[in-house]
Fold these 2 entries.
Entry 1:
Amino acid sequence: AQTVTQSQPEMSVQEAETVTLSCTYDTSESDYYLFWYKQPPSRQMILVIRQEAYKQQNATENRFSVNFQKAAKSFSLKISDSQLGDAAMYFCAYRSARSGATNKLIFGTGTLLAVQP
Amino acid sequence: NAGVTQTPKFRVLKTGQSMTLLCAQDMNHEYMYWYRQDPGMGLRLIHYSVGEGTTAKGEVPDGYNVSRLKKQNFLLGLESAAPSQTSVYFCASSDSLNYGYTFGSGTRLTVV
């Protein structure tokens, strides 16, 4: 079974600085998708960024980028120029791309990010 | 376009009471899911459905039942609530072509 591990329960960053959130996963599959979700205090789950395992290029969305290391099974999220609105819980998630899979997302336990003004 | 709507948003139950959480999506998605979120444990899958009339167990199905009689609705039932079911419940949907989920806004359930 696949697992997702986030080893940093809490992180803190100064406004305008850069922070990296860690995520590792375990799978025997070669084709899959990885995601980062943001959950602000409003509780809404917001998709931040997505990475297809078959792509070597790291995904980027504005100030958010990932460092995807397939061999190491590592998928970290870098937030540049941190803003107060980035304060939230961040979840890493895995989804199989295997034909016949049921689109189930497997989540890590989350990292609570605080942004200091 | 409302996306995924969960009702109710908050509920307090007494131990042994029953209730149903409703999830409705208007995106014609095939797949629907119920997760629970607990501190330090992330989101764990309770039950899911791959299409109208189908349901399957997830990681933590005990104490819950589900039904998907219509494609747009996915109901989560608690027959006899227990304090261990105090949690935030999320419904989500996806289709086979979409890589991510669309989530509802969650239901905070407290069982006393």
Entry 2:
Amino acid sequence: NAGVTQTPKFQVLKTGQSMTLQCAQDMNHEYMSWYRQDPGMGLRLIHYSVGAGITDQGEVPNGYNVSRSTTEDFPLRLLSAAPSQTSVYFCASSYSHRANQPQHFGDGTRLSIL
Amino acid sequence: GQQVMQIPQYQHVQEGEDFTTYCNSSTTLSNIQWYKQRPGGHPVFLIQLVKSGEVKKQKRLTFQFGEAKKNSSLHITATQTTDVGTYFCAGPTSGGSYIPTFGRGTSLIVHP
């Protein structure tokens, strides 16, 4: 059972480039989310999805887009990368947002914007 | 901004000493979760507390949920080097949903 799989693990971009961070889960989880982690700032929610076809903004959504066409996949798109988006990105999933459920995290993507 | 405040941000201890991290909210929480993140790793779920005044133990770790359900603590007895990492609490966002908001975490450094 793979759990939550994120790709790539590392990426270096130039300012202005675009890219997509991939996230897939094989647990048939309804809820998926993206966080960014910066030193001293904890985990900040970027976007989340409570099911296929449904997405919503979190605390820090600017500069990022998401879509949820299937239950399994929840990609995060950086439209025009900026140095402020240098961070570690974690994808997480849980069985449902309607009840207290533990979050399962992927291994993270370490992204540097030059 | 963050719904849950976590202190301290860092804690250095000698191996064998105890450690406590605190999580506080201005609003009543329906539940609180605790996670551990090892250096270079990803957060891993430890436990969830739901009831007022609840206390749960996992070996040397003791988790408490306050009577008013506005605060929680994680206490580690006799720390070991394997306890090194960042401990996060997470509470539901305001408005009644169960979408978690994480505290900024407490980084535990254990000196052998």
